[in-house]
Design brief:
232 residues, 42% helix, 16% strand
């Protein structure tokens, strides 16, 4: 009997990340919830585990290289593989372009873009072992240069950077069996999106799952929402 595929979802103790993790367990995957707050991650994993599925939580702060290294080491030790990485961890910090605060910009970059890049680099070797993988960077249309405005400037710029990370990783991994794509889940009713957001959590998570479920000849290096291309 083949071993189940293994997925790591960062920022998975709530919102879209938690819903994506739940859906992946429903596909029979062994799922690791990455959470900066270890207690919150363990509580989230316990809620999913009531369905008798294979899920656990790792303490993971994507702004901390030591934390990323520890998480990839645990994946190596406990599973010896990784098949799916969903880079979902993110921050949404206030500030217009002309009043940009260096700390806000730095934390946005390190969380939303650099952290995702470093986590991918740390775990890609585990995907290469089986010649198969899916990396899904949870981005936003706010990072589209075609429609970008100055509202929440640091967030917008960091998501544009995340999209660039998607492009360069996809180029390096082309032909390896590992597909890399950015996905905008839309404006979703989560703690980050707010109660007034028009899209349900389930619909936002389904947009992410589309990129996880791509066939081997599916697109790589793209930017999508609900399976349809978005402008960069």
């Amino acid at each position: 009997m083949a071993e189940p595929r293994v997925a790591l979802v960062s920022g998975a103790n709530r919102g879209i990340g938690l819903e994506v993790a739940r859906l992946l367990t429903g596909q029979g995957m062994a799922v690791v919830l990455g959470a900066r707050d270890a207690r919150a991650g363990n509580e989230a994993a316990a809620r999913i585990r009531r369905r008798r599925v294979n899920v656990r939580s790792y303490e993971l702060d994507v702004t901390d290289p030591t934390s990323i290294e520890a998480a990839s080491g645990r994946l190596e030790e406990e599973f010896g593989r990784l098949d799916v990485l969903v880079n979902n961890a993110g921050v949404y910090l206030e500030g217009d372009a002309t009043t940009m605060d260096r700390g806000t910009a730095d934390l946005s970059w390190r969380t939303n873009a650099l952290g995702a890049w470093e986590l991918a680099v740390a775990t890609i070797p585990l995907m290469r072992r089986h010649g198969w993988g899916r990396i899904v960077n949870v981005s936003s249309e706010a990072g589209s240069l075609a429609s970008m405005n100055s509202f929440m400037a640091a967030y917008n710029v960091s998501k544009a950077a995340l999209n660039a990370v998607t492009r360069v990783l996809a180029a390096d991994l082309r032909g390896s069996g590992i597909l890399v794509n950015s996905v905008c889940p839309g404006w979703v009713a989560t703690e980050m999106g707010g109660r007034g957001a028009p899209r349900s959590l389930e619909k936002g998570a389904a947009s992410v799952l589309w990129a996880v479920d791509l066939p081997d000849d599916g697109p790589t290096g793209g930017f999508f929402r609900d399976g349809r291309p978005l402008k960069w």
